[in-house]
Amino acid sequence: MSAEADLEPPLLEVKNLSARFRMGKVDMLAIRRVDLEIRRREVLGIIGESGSGKSVTGLSILRLLPEHALVAADQLRFDGQELLPLSDEAFRELRGTHLAMVFQDPVGAFNPAKSIGWHLDRIIARAATRANRQGVDLTQDANRWLSDVGIAQPERILPLYPHQLSGGMLQRTLIALSAALQPDLLIADEPTTNLDNIVERQIIGLFRRLKDKLGSAIIFITHDISLAAGLCDRIAVMYAGEIVETGPAETLFRNPTHPYTIGLIETSRQLDERGGRLKEIPGELPSGSHRPRGCLFAPRCGFAAEACRAAPPANIALSPNHSVRCVRYG
Amino acid sequence: MVWVRYVGGRLLALVLTVLVGSVVVFLVMKAAPGDPAVAALGESARPELVAAFRAKHNLDVPWALQYGRWLSGIARGDFGLSLTVASDRPIAGLIAARLPNTIFIGVMALLIAVILSLIAGTIAALRRGKLADTIATSLAAFGISMPDFWLSYVLILVFALGLGLFPAYGFIAPAQSFTGALYSGFLPALAVSAPLAAVFARTLRTSLLEAGNKDYVVAARSFGFHPAYVFVHWIFRNALIPYITIIGLQIRYILGGVVVIERIFGISGVGSLMVDGAFARDYPVVQACAVVFLVIVLSVNLVVDVVCSLLDPKRAR
User: Fold this and answer.
1) Rounded Cα–Cα distance for residues A121 and A142 (Å)
2) Residues A129, A131, A135, A139: is their CA dihedral positive or negative?
3) Which numeric CATH code is attached to B97-311?
4) Fewest C-beta in 10 Å: which of A78, A289, B211, B219?
5) Which chain A residues are within 8 Å of B222, Cβ to Cβ?
6) Chain B closest-CA separation from residue A124 CA (Å)
7) Per CATH, which fold does A3-98+183-329 belong to?
């Protein structure tokens, strides 16, 4: 991160974000104590295993969780505006213009009754509602994004229906359509899960262009730490609904401090170096209703001590932009 | 071209089904007890008269030949002569005079069921768990469990005899006066449509709720489309496919209902003709009506299938 970027206020500031789901009489806590910051022209990676709350974090920011979800935050500020007090109607105006999301399951994200061209037309119309887009040829622009992700002749897929395209093809189309909206903030939830390496690289290239050319900020949600290391400026590691470590991608990858981050990086290195048996982090995520009193990771942690089980660890700043939630650094 | 082949294939299948159905109708009527000649002429009729009657109505030849003559007659639009209901009059004429009434009541019942269910199903889904949903769902449960003949009498009691808004008996043919037919056909059509409206509404409610929970709705919201726009193009559009499929499956009950309702309201239709034929042992009339109903049901199903294929890209040929 450059020094001048530090002077610019963050595009998105999240403080103490939590989301819980009402399940009958009990609440299921999905995420809590989530602090995030992202500036323009920055890619923030959120990494963690399935069920760690990465997607819920993204959906909470965009107010896309189902009705029985309760989202709260001390601060949820986007471009100088607090989002939580906004009416649904005012919030809707931000989506598709300033805020956009790429979903994990591309097949499910498309309207099965409508053709790809129908989706494209609707999204271009949506993009055109933003004031500074008047006079821009958005169709041409969308076609360029499509060719950027390797769909050279978009007119060939326009008459087709979602079920006639492969998952990878839909994923690329969805990403291109979201890019065509030219949002200030794009939240991409595991956008490369269905794609092979070549297409994955194309997508990564598209995200880079989006941030360099348009100055968009991107939240990149993934379980693939080496992918995140290559694309992201900063990384937040999530575990059981909390961010356990956050810092510059390089620092985090070279000098991980939280035992969970260390475990994740070791696992991915093994994957990269020899394809043999994976040394997984033993144990599993605590469930939403049965959470340990102290550190959430303590039951699986090799370093766990008495203090870890007694009380939840505080967030400790190791440097101005690197912090960790672990008593070992207190 | 693809469509011509698809619809052509379905039409061929329809003709084959009608053929098989005609055999079943023919055999079932043959298996029915009682000699039609005795039924028509009485127990004490002279043997020569009985023999003449049998010759005239094709009853003196083997069954296979009877069936062959009957079928080739139908192909030429000749359903034979009535035995007892309207002595010696061609059945084709009897049906032609009554079919418009039956179709009118049937279509009207279908339209009422569709309109009621679109309103009730949509409100119930949009206000799920709220009072409006409870009312719509309870009404639907009531509609499904209510026999149509009973509902007919309730409607007559309340709207005809009680409030005097509609006629209790009789029907003005649509050829005579279209508005008159709408007015006099309203109560019978409503009685036929109630159980269907209930089934349609429940299906629509479930399909709407199901479609509303799909990821594509969240995706549509993420693009910032207006909630009403999302409802129409994502939720309703996708719920429409199971909804119309159910209409196709249920449509035969309209005919079942029409048969009963025509008797109750004194409507001169194919349904009442069939009932009269059955009581009078006029088996050619019953056979002819059964074949007509068969063709109607199959044709309607064909139309529904084609509409579904148009709506559902996954089913398109």
Assistant:
1) 10
2) negative
3) 1.10.3720.10
4) A289
5) 62, 64, 95-96, 100-101, 103
6) 10
7) Rossmann fold (3.40.50)
